[in-house]
Automatic annotation (TrEMBL):
<feature type="domain" description="Cupin type-2">
    <location>
        <begin position="37"/>
        <end position="106"/>
    </location>
</feature>
<dbReference type="InterPro" id="IPR051610">
    <property type="entry name" value="GPI/OXD"/>
</dbReference>
<dbReference type="GO" id="GO:0046872">
    <property type="term" value="F:metal ion binding"/>
</dbReference>
<dbReference type="InterPro" id="IPR014710">
    <property type="entry name" value="RmlC-like_jellyroll"/>
</dbReference>
<protein>
    <submittedName>
        <fullName>Cupin</fullName>
    </submittedName>
</protein>
<dbReference type="InterPro" id="IPR011051">
    <property type="entry name" value="RmlC_Cupin_sf"/>
</dbReference>
<keyword id="KW-0479">Metal-binding</keyword>
<dbReference type="InterPro" id="IPR013096">
    <property type="entry name" value="Cupin_2"/>
</dbReference>
<dbReference type="Pfam" id="PF07883">
    <property type="entry name" value="Cupin_2"/>
</dbReference>
Length: 110
C-alpha cells in the first residue's frame, strides 16, 4: 500500500495534546495505526502524554526535535528516530527558529 501524504488534507492544530503553538499534520489512520507526516513550527510543543495500548516512533526528516522522554531530554536530529515504548510518557518541542518535519507512527497494539 502506498500512502501519498500529498493527497491527504493537512490539519492545522493549535496546542497539540495541550502543548503550545502550531503543528501541521497529514495523517493516514486505520484500525491498525496512525501514520503522520508533521511539521512542528518554531517554539511549538506537544503536551505531555502517555502511550497506552500503543507506542510511537518519530523519524526526523528536517530540523531538530527536542523530546522529553520520561525523566530525560533528548535532541533528535535529521536521520535519527525517537522511540516511546508503551506505558512511557513523552512530549516534544521545537526549540529552534526553523520548522521540524518528522514522520510519526503509532500502531494499535490491542
Amino acid at each position: 500500500m502506498v500512502i501519498d501524504f500529498d493527497k491527504i488534507a493537512e490539519e492545522h492544530i493549535e496546542a497539540f495534546k495541550g502543548g503550545e503553538g502550531k503543528l501541521d499534520m497529514r495523517a493516514f489512520v486505520d484500525e491498525q495505526a496512525r501514520i503522520m507526516y508533521s511539521t512542528l513550527r518554531p517554539g511549538a510543543s506537544s503536551g505531555k502524554h502517555q502511550h497506552v495500548g500503543s507506542f510511537e516512533v518519530m523519524y526526523v526528516i528536517s530540523g531538530e526535535l527536542t523530546v522529553h522522554y520520561d525523566d530525560t531530554i533528548e535532541v533528535v536530529r535529521v536521520g535519527q528516530l525517537h522511540y516511546c515504548p508503551e506505558s512511557h510518557f513523552h512530549w516534544f518541542e521545537n526549540c529552534t527558529d526553523h520548522d521540524v518535519v518528522y514522520l510519526a507512527i503509532v500502531p494499535t497494539l490491542r
